Structures are given as structure tokens and as C-alpha cells.
Amino acid sequence: MKARIASIWFAGLLLVPLAACGPADEDPEDVPVPGDPQFVRDPALDVDNISAHGEARSHNMGLNCMNCHQAHGPGKGRFTAAGTAIGPAGVPLAGGTVELRTAPNGQGDLVIAVEIDDNGNFFTTEPLPFPDESLFPFVRAPGAGGTAFMPFPTISGACNVCHVGAQRVRVE
């Protein structure tokens, strides 16, 4: 098998390169990419995968983790919540915690607390009530550091879909 690169184009601009694998004579448009319902996921990838303080096994800081870690993707584990926490200097924040709660501003019942790894990423395969129930994200920096929160609820744990570029949430 030879690997090829397929690309998504919009108004003549290259937006996202996508790797596609298949026989060299196969049309790249016929090869399913991650997220496509035709993409066949290896069942061996459906394992628990949860971030932890002190680990640095994650990658792709700032990108949407759930592009690959989903039912039609090649990532290890099907994430229910994932993203990258950003510190005051605009770089990934290591060692904090992301909480999902039933009320805003760090109030309400704690549904789950996910540790942020040394690369600034947090992720979990633990079951969550999305999209049937909305939750409020609350981020705690390590130690006695600052906090950040969303003042409105979300029904998705794919944090880096919205929180990219100028929309990143910084934990002061």
C-alpha cells in the first residue's frame, strides 16, 4: 500500500491536508477519511483512554481530538470530552483539571473531573450525558492557580471545535 495525501480545498485555498491510505491505483475520493461513516474503525481501538497528570503521551495540542478519537476515526479510545487547556502565556497548561458540572461558575454537582496532562491536553472515554444533558465546563490551574469557566452550557465535549485561535480559553 502506498500512502497518499488528499486535500480539502475551498475557494482555491488549501485548508486541511488529509492522509488517505489505499492501493496506489485507488481513486482518493473513494477512500473514506476519518469522520466518514464509511471509515472502518479497528475494534481494538475501543479502549479506555483517560489523560492524567504527569503523562505526556498525548499529541496535536489545540486540534480537535475527536476528529480521530470517535466512532469513525483511527484514534485510540472514543473520547466523550477532550481538548487543550491554555495558560496565561498562550501555551498549553500542564497539570490542571477540567471539571464538567451541572451549574455554571464551578457550582453544581460534579459530573466528572479530567486531569490535564503535561502537554496541556485532557481527554476521557468515560460515559457522559452529552448531547441529552448540557454541562458547564470549569478549568482549574494546578496548585492555587487560576480558574476559567464557560458561563453557558454545552452539549458537546469536543472543546477544540470552538476553542481555537482567538477563541481559546486561557486559565490565568
UniProtKB/TrEMBL annotation:
Stored InterPro entries: Multihaem_cyt_sf (IPR036280)
Keyword annotations from UniProtKB, A to Z: Signal
Signal keyword on record: yes
Signal peptide: 1-26
Protein name in the entry: Cytochrome c domain-containing protein
Source species of the chain: Polyangium mundeleinium
